[in-house]
Write a structure and sequence with these properties.
eight-stranded antiparallel β-barrel, Cytochrome Bc1 Complex, Chain D, domain 2, Lipocalin, binds heme C, alpha+beta, 312 residues, 10 helices
Length: 312
């Protein structure tokens, strides 16, 4: 009996190990990497990177590429300053970590574990080593999620970005910005290749289905400096109350530019998608000082939010 049990244990361990002896690829749309900053001692903000890619090799080597130009601080000019002064136009940063795959491979679907990772962040020539305790959950046969169990703190001095942070303070006229940055991550990996096709579990997406209103509300923060949703509440831009089905440039009491007023566009999900992805290209000469949303998901989530908040 004991022997049989042992045989079963070994057999299932082999099956589990085989399942993980694969390359896993990061699912960027369901992953999230963010860091926090505190300015003037009191104002906390979360910044994140939308451009992530990466994989885990069968022996547990994790390599993640972070597109630094995808930094999202919710203010465009600040994104540009971060890219230029803090990241020094370095393009990508890489995060390498080593995992004990044996621990991960013993997980069956629905099980979780805490796993220690030795990680190394390379950013614009600087290398920062750190340990992180990661929370790993097996979501399905073909997907795992790995997230930070606690915050990981990275010092701006170690990352050699202090000069850039000084520059940000000077440009934004701030008395202080924190020099230690808490980082959190949620990374979802899907198994590559044939085995994944055989088991064919649907790839897990975290609330990234078309039109996520909650995510859209966050995207709207980029608009809310200039647009309100309440009727007739015009500010820098016109109120977006009842925008669906409305003809462009017609809200009473707002002075539009001629190109917008004469565009003849009727606003619906499709025309808004085109316009918000490229406002200047869609209506040349319009006066909306906004470069457009780069991420398609952001656009569809935003539209879902607007539809829920102000149906036409
Ligand atoms: C910096 C201010 C600013 C930001 C940020 C901004 N807009 Fe605008 N928006 C304007 C202005 C100004 C106009 C009117 C432009 C004109 O008359 O040429 C406008 C026009 C529009 C219109 C046309 C309205 C109508 O009545 O036809 C829509 C729709 C719109 N914006 C949506 C958005 C959304 C959604 C966002 C966020 C993703 C956004 N805007 C971000 C200033 C802004």
């Amino acid at each position: 009996m004991k022997l049989l049990l042992k045989a079963v244990t070994i057999a299932s361990a082999i099956v589990a190990t085989q399942a993980l002896a694969e390359t896993w690829t990061l699912a960027p749309e369901s992953s999230h990497l963010a860091y926090g900053t505190i300015k003037k001692d009191t104002v906390g903000e979360v910044n994140s990177f939308t451009g992530l890619s990466g994989h885990v090799t069968p022996d547990g080597q994790v390599e993640i590429q972070i597109d630094l130009s995808s930094v999202e601080t919710n203010i465009d000019i600040r994104n540009e300053r971060m890219i230029e002064h803090v990241f020094r136009k370095a393009g990508t940063a890489s995060l390498k970590a080593k995992f004990d795959m044996a621990e991960v491979s013993s997980l069956s679907v629905g099980e979780t574990a805490l796993v220690d990772a030795d990680a190394m962040l390379s950013l614009a020539g600087a290398e920062v080593a750190f340990d992180a305790e990661m929370f790993v959950a097996r979501l399905s046969d073909t997907s795992v999620t790995v997230s930070t169990n606690d915050m990981v703190f990275i010092s701006t001095e170690d990352a050699a970005v202090n000069t850039g942070v000084d520059k940000l303070m000077e440009l934004a006229n701030l008395p202080s910005i924190t020099r230690t940055v808490p980082v959190t991550a949620r990374l979802i990996f899907n198994m590559d290749g044939e085995q994944a096709a055989v088991t064919s579990a649907a790839p897990i997406a975290v609330a990234a289905v078309a039109g996520d209103t909650k995510a859209g509300k966050k995207v709207f923060r980029k608009c809310s400096a200039c647009h309100k949703l309440a009727e007739n509440r015009h500010s820098v831009g016109p109120s977006l109350h009842g925008i669906f089905g409305a003809t462009a440039g017609q809200a009473a009491g707002f002075r539009y530019s001629s190109p917008l007023k004469e565009s003849g566009i009727v606003w619906n999900a499709e025309t808004l998608t085109t316009f918000l992805s490229d406002p200047r290209g869609t209506i040349p000469g319009n006066r909306m000082q906004f470069p457009g949303l780069r991420n398609e998901k952001d656009v569809s989530n935003l539209i879902a939010y607007l539809q829920a908040e102000t149906p036409g």
